[in-house]
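Schema walk-through. Below, the input block comes first and the output block second. Nothing else is stored per chain. Lengths vary across the set, and this one has 206 residues.
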Amino acid sequence: MDLRVRRTRKMLWDALLALLAEKPFTELTVEEICARAMVNRTTFYKHYRDKHDLAVRGAEAMLAALGAKLEGASDETVRQAPAGSPPEHISALFAHVAAEPEFFRLAFCGDDSLPFRAIMERMIADRTRRRVAALNRSPRDHVPDEVVAVFGAGALVSVLSWWVSHDFPLPPETMARHVTYLLTRGSDQAAGAAAPAAGRPGPPGR
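--- output ---
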């Protein structure tokens, strides 16, 4: 991509983020975004159809950077990770969110009309489907891949939303460990319930 194009799009995206900290997305106009970015409207419309197009494509670019981090991380499962350590992709997720607090505050705490959270949930679900499909499967019945993907993405995004909206009360390393414990032990044991004496039942049949 041409350097001038990248620069213009960054200026418009930065202007949008700055304005979203001041007023709801529904009240923003293209004129305000252009004025903040010091870009004329003709230039804006060469790159985006409207403010919603800017928001969606900007969010997709931000989350693509997160996706690249996750793709570069090991695909080890929670049981393959070293004892007491979260899998690399879970650690990378929390570290990346902590490194981009302004964007993720807007993603999770901003205007409901923005699609940031939905895009992130879809991205994590897609990655989970690919990772699960590549697992060495047990011959027993297992929970359908789609249920695993949707559950995992929804749970992770909900935990991230709580973490960001409460201004990062725990370090990313601690959050990654907590999520790993939840994934391996379940919510009851994570909440302090005594471990059952007998083995856990397997997943239900299809």
